Amino acid sequence: MKPDASWGWSRSLHAWRGGQRPASQVGRVHDTEHQNDQKEREIVTAIEEDIWSTPGVLRQTIVRVGMKGRELDDVLVGPLVLLGSGSSYCIGMSAATAYESIRGKPAQALLGSEYRPRPDWTHLAISRTGKTTEVVEAMHRAREAGARVGLIVGDSGSPAEEVAHSVLHLEFAPERGVIQTRFITAAVTALRLLIEGRSAAGDIDLLPDEVAHGLERLEPDSLSAFRHVVFIGRGPRHGLALSAALTVAETALLVAEGHQTLDYRHGPIAVADERTLVWCFDPADDPAAAGVIEDIRQTGARVVWPGFDPLVSLVQAQLLALRIAQARDIDPDVPRNLQRAIVLPTG
């Protein structure tokens, strides 16, 4: 596929192997479910434990979709609406672009608060808690209009489950912390498997190890001093870039930006300078992205362009957000003005 028409997932496991773990990552906590992830490290925050446990959660996700993914088959047909808020909306954008490219059917991500019924489209809601008022109300309106509604959800027994025709449970994925990290990564992985089908299975089996190696190899100290952070990506990677920017904003209290790669030249690049960090989620062999990166380097900005699987970059960005917060003496487990779900009064 062309670089702008695919998820941009790469077979990059061997590129991440080798090397020693930094001494600063040696400590006490490990993922007890998976022997390959049992590397002790010092963990002092809930969000850090969430991030480091992501490889194990991805393994569980792959198994769950293999066992239960067909329950959403009746939703992934024809035109598709993906409903979400916050980070779930961002990854819904990624999934919509991939769905159109791979399935050849129209798809669009919509905020629950902006939803207008589309009775001839099927609907798939994404929600960690299943309690977000705008999403649940949008699901109700879709059903009342006669649409089929599916759900990918973390917490069990939620109001959203009562509305959905079919549900994929990822009850092992919700975080201990408030900020979404591993649930978002798990939901993206599930969406890729659901949309691409059996063709994705071979590559996706490598993903947990790729994420683990990506976390081990990240050296955030040289990046955590930046106070202007930008993430770019095109195609399905655009939504992942938006999700990364939102995580940095929530965790480190920075006004981070997420942009479509080519559109970054249409205005936002004016703000870039030597104080800016720009992280590109696109493949290293994407010539269109290469042209934009060259323009960005001309501004003096620091560029991070690993060229590997974009989901690895997403999890690395989550860890970077944590390190920036710690460098600024911000408690990432008590994010300002945030809660696990926005539940609004009714009536």
Secondary structure: helix percent: 25-40%
Number of helices: 12
Structural class: alpha/beta
Beta-strand fraction estimate = 5-15%
Number of strands: 9
Main sheet properties: 5 strands, parallel
What is the ordering of alpha helices and beta strands? Answer: HHHEHEEHEHEHHHEHEEHEH
Shape: globular
Low-confidence stretches: 1-5, 9-38
Order of strands, widest sheet:
2-1-3-4-5
Quick description:
This protein is an alpha/beta fold. It has twelve helices and nine strands.
Explain this structure.
- By secondary structure, this protein is α/β, with parallel strands linked by helices.
- 39% of the residues lie in helices and 12% in strands.
- The chain has a five-stranded parallel sheet with strand order 2-1-3-4-5, with helices on both faces. A four-stranded parallel sheet has the order 7-6-8-9, with helices on both faces.
- The N and C termini lie far apart (49 Å).
- Residues 1-5 and 9-38 have low confidence and may be disordered.
Summarize the topology:
Elements: H1 13-16, H2 46-52, H3 54-68, E1 80-84, H4 87-103, E2 107-111, E3 122-127, H5 133-144, E4 149-153, H6 159-163, E5 166-169, H7 182-196, H8 201-204, H9 207-217, E6 228-233, H10 236-252, E7 257-260, E8 276-280, H11 287-298, E9 302-304, H12 310-327
Parallel strand pairs: 1-2, 1-3, 3-4, 4-5, 6-7, 6-8, 8-9
Helix pairs in contact: 3-7, 3-9, 4-7, 4-10, 9-12, 10-12
